[in-house]
Amino acid sequence: MRLEELDINKKVISHLQSLGVVDLFPPQASAFETGVLKGKNLVLAIPTSSGKTLVAEVCMLKAILDGRGKALYLVPLKSLAREKYDDFKKYEKLGISVAMSVGDYDSPGTRLREADIIILTTERADSIVRHKADWIDEIGIVVVDEIHLVNDSSRGPTLEMVLAKLTQMVQAQIIALSATISNADEIANWLSAELVKSTWRPVPLSEGVYLDSEIDFFEGDRYEKRSTRQVPRKYKDEIVDMVCDTLDENGQVLLFVSSRKSTVTVAKRIGPSIRKYLSSDSMKDLLRIAKKIGSAPTSPEESKTLAKLVAEGIAFHHAGLDNQERALVEDLFKGNLLKVVVATPTLAAGVNLPARRVIIRDYRRFEESLGNYPIPVLEYKQMAGRAGRPKYDKYGEAVLIARTESEKEALIEHYTLSEPEEIYSRLASPTAIRSHLLASIAAELTCTNEEIDGLISNTFYAYQNDQRKIAHHVASAIAFLEDGKLIETSPTGQYSATLLGKRASQLYIDPQTAIMFRDILAQVDEHTQLGILHMICHSPDQSVAYVIRSELEEYEVFVDDHSKEFLVEPPDIEDENYTGFLGEVKTARLLEEWISESTEKDITEKFGVGMGDVHRYVQSAEWLIHAAAEIARITNRSSHIPSLHSLRSRLKYGVRSDILELVNLRGIGRIRGRMLHNHGLRSFSDLYHVPIDELARIPTIGRAIAESVKKQLGVDVKPSQSPVDESEDDEDLGSMQTLLDDFTQ
Ligand SMILES: Nc1ncnc2c1ncn2[C@@H]1O[C@H](COP(=O)(O)OP(=O)(O)OP(=O)(O)O)[C@@H](O)[C@H]1O
Ligand SMILES: [Mg+2]
After folding, report:
1. Which of 47, 98, 440, 722 has the most CB atoms within 10 Å of its CB?
2. Gap from CA of 155 to ligand 1 centroid (Å)
3. b or e along 69-108 (b: 16 or more beta carbons within 10 Å of the residue's beta carbon)?
């Protein structure tokens, strides 16, 4: 089927044609034959890289242009949201506006009202439903990308509930995209949708297992084609052999390992063998870029390691890197400057990368509760599916590594030739239920037991199970919310949220967090910085660092020394929660270092975490402090508010209080702010009066920032020639941003 045969505006067709889409892939054609352009629901469960997004795009454009309403595009991860946003921006030429929102959970997203296509993470979509944004009834179509993630214990329940609520609130078409799963029919029945399943892939993918210099490959719809490939032994390390085998044929390699630490060690091991594959131009570009990564003396050691590797044409990628470094690695790989990326499986979902060969070194993963267990087939297929994407390659290869013949046979049977597992609803978890019930009561979606049953009956859980199985979870969640005074029940059995219940739901915090904050703030009149930061870290909404064995004693002593400051009683040393408590304390101390202006290098080294982790801890703590201040306000504990507000700003900028005024200026953050302060410039007034030349001479400031600062303070300055880079104050981030701009131009 050709694209032009579709019943859609000609402008859309020519636009897509100009981007190279002429013929539809067979599963895309099957999808359009279901009547999806007439508004039918669809579940599209077809292999990785078979072009699911395009089907969704055409359906969204059709709905928008036919006046059926706005399109929501839901994704599980922020990185995927960004990739889709960059991709869909192309439709702005057709007068379709595109917006993305992935943070700021305490707002109804009024700005989004203007957009036609709105890309949201599942959590953000949930928060918008909680705020009952006034544009929800304008939604005409909802696309759920990677819907197999209902199987994910943390994101799954939210995804199900968002869909259940949206279907109660609006009559929208639903398009669900999924990698192949064996029970896609269940998802389709749940959503009253047509199902399109296929094993077709636009680019052939060979999946195989490596043992003793040979890869045994399987290919085809039923893996009917078998072949072997000899991998020349040139290096001591078999992984290096396998990498160079692909580089020898001008391909690129993506290597998955299970831990962050391994991404770095493996990349270091491969690095020296990559150089010879780089052209002299690439080498120059890489060197120029590498010089800017982690160039500040205060940069974390890991950024410096990354810089060294980038210069060699290889990089590592994991969730501990900060967002900009991750985006940079992805872009350099896409631009074929980096030949190899070693990643954790976070890079496995949905992204389009130019990997001809994907090597999956670790098929086991360690989790404290489960030990070392083999990953699900679905995850293996997702990783394998990054190889051979139509934009980049004519074929792809995915390789597992075996040590013995019997392991090889087992891997072929369990992964290569296996169907992904069935997926299950994860809704039956007390935390998920209490939070979502509070949300739906607060939004007045469900006010009676019957209405709650009605909502639950819309979930995948209810589709897969006897709804009565979940009844006791519902009953105990209601009791929990009543006891905590987040909801009230009228004599006629009508539920309503209290003021605290409503705010807790809108603030997107666990009901347990709201109850804890309220009770603590009611009990204490004064708190120390450590006390309040620890309270935040004690919330189930805050992820915290682990305390490793060698740190135990240090934190035990610390807890003893500061026992009076904790607003939450430390558990007994024998208690099973004790180590968790130490982790909260460790995170609180990390936050204290951040707001004392310790350098990124010092923080990451002292706490053994990556900069991405630091940013995550800081962002969620900042959010929870905002929530605590809101709770103080509505429960008449306003004496706590000023210190909470100040702490929130300090977390946001990572500064001591004496430069809080300065960091309000664009382009001034923790480093430049401190520099100004050290030069005696401590207020807007000081900055207003200082001669511009003097300001520009201060290290890290320069002419452009000096001009920008003066302008922001209302001083009339003659513009100089140099462009203003106000991206961030922090030299690391600033240079990284410019670097990305340089590269993507
Ligand atoms: N009909 C087509 N003709 C040419 N290229 C296409 C066509 N449809 C999609 N593509 C291209 O195929 C690539 C893969 O598409 P897409 O990202 O939608 O895969 P996917 O099915 O969502 O895979 P995954 O399960 O990995 O997310 C994209 O680069 C896209 O532009
Ligand atoms: Mg996709």
Report:
1. 440
2. 24
3. bbbbbbbbbebbbbbbbeebeebeeeebebbbbbeebbbb
Closest alpha carbon to 338 in 277, 399, 398: 277
Per 3-state DSSP, the chain is made up of helix, strand and coil in percentages (nearest 5) of 55, 15, 35
Rounded to the nearest whole angstrom, what is the distance from the C-alpha of residue 49 to the centroid of ligand 1? Answer: 5
The SS3 call for residue 544 is coil
Distance 730 CA to ligand 1 centre (A): 37
Helix (H, G, I), strand (E, B) or coil at 368: coil
The answer to whether the CB of 521 falls within 8 A of the CB of 513 is: no
Domain locations along the chain: 3-197, 205-416, 430-497, 511-654, 659-744
CB distance 51 to ligand 1 below 6 Å: yes
Domain 430-497 coded CATH 1.10.10.10: yes
Q: What is the DSSP string of 415-437?
A: IITPPPPP-------HHHHHHHH
Phi/psi of residue 428, each to 5°?
A: -75, 55
Indicate whether residue 48 lines ligand 1 (CB < 6 A): yes
Asked if 559 contacts 537 with a C-beta cutoff of 8 angstroms, the reply is no
Name the CATH superfamily for 659-744. Answer: 5' to 3' exonuclease, C-terminal subdomain (1.10.150.20)
pTM for the full predicted model: 0.86
Nearest alpha carbon, ligand 1 atom 4: 21
Q: How far is the CA of 389 from the centre of ligand 1 (A)?
A: 8
Sign of CA dihedral 448, 449, 451, 456: positive
* CA gap 307, 228 in Å, rounded: 37
State whether the beta carbon of 437 lies less than 6 angstroms from ligand 1: no
Q: Which CATH fold topology does 205-416 show?
A: Rossmann fold (3.40.50)
Strand order of the β-sheet with 194-197 is 98-101, 117-121, 70-75, 139-144, 173-178, 42-45, 194-197
Tell me the pLDDT band of 107, cut-offs 50, 70 and 90. low
- The CA 476 to ligand 2 mean position distance, Å, reads 38
Q: Please, which pLDDT band fits residue 742 given cuts at 50, 70 and 90?
A: very low
Cα–Cα separations (whole angstroms), residue 15 to 11, 20, 57, 61, 115: 6, 9, 12, 12, 20
Query: Is the distance from the beta carbon of residue 90 to the nearest atom of ligand 1 less than 6 Å?
Result: no
179 lines ligand 1 (CB under 6 A): yes
Among protein residues, the one with the nearest Cα to ligand 1's atom 27 is 350
Alpha-carbon distances of 339 from 25, 80, 268, 309, rounded to whole Å: 29, 22, 14, 11
- Atom of ligand 1 minimally distant from the CA of 28: 1
SS3 assignment, position 144 = strand
Backbone angles phi, psi at 401, to 5 degrees: -120, 130
Residues 420, 80, 464, 38, CA torsion sign: negative
Tens of pLDDT along 477-515?
Answer: 999 999 999 999 999 999 999 999 999 999 999 999 999
- Dist. CA 194–CA 192, nearest whole Å: 7
CATH class of the region 511-654: mainly alpha
- Report pLDDT digits (tens) over 289-316: 998 887 776 678 888 999 999 999 999 9
Q: What pLDDT is attached to residue 733?
A: 33
Q: Does domain 3-197 have CATH number 3.40.50.2300?
A: no
Fold: same for 3-197 and 205-416: yes
Q: Is any ligand 1 atom within 6 A of the Cβ of residue 24?
A: yes
Cα of 56 vs centre of ligand 1, distance in Å, is 11
Nearest to residue 247, comparing CAs of 147, 150, 341, 356?
Answer: 356
Cα distance between residue 452 and residue 481, in whole Å: 14
From 28, 43, 53, give the residue whose CB has the most ligand 1 atoms within 8 Å, as the site to mutate. Answer: 53
Distance 350 CA to ligand 2 centre (A): 4
- Classified as helix, coil or strand, 282 is helix
Q: Is the CB of 350 under 6 A from ligand 1?
A: yes
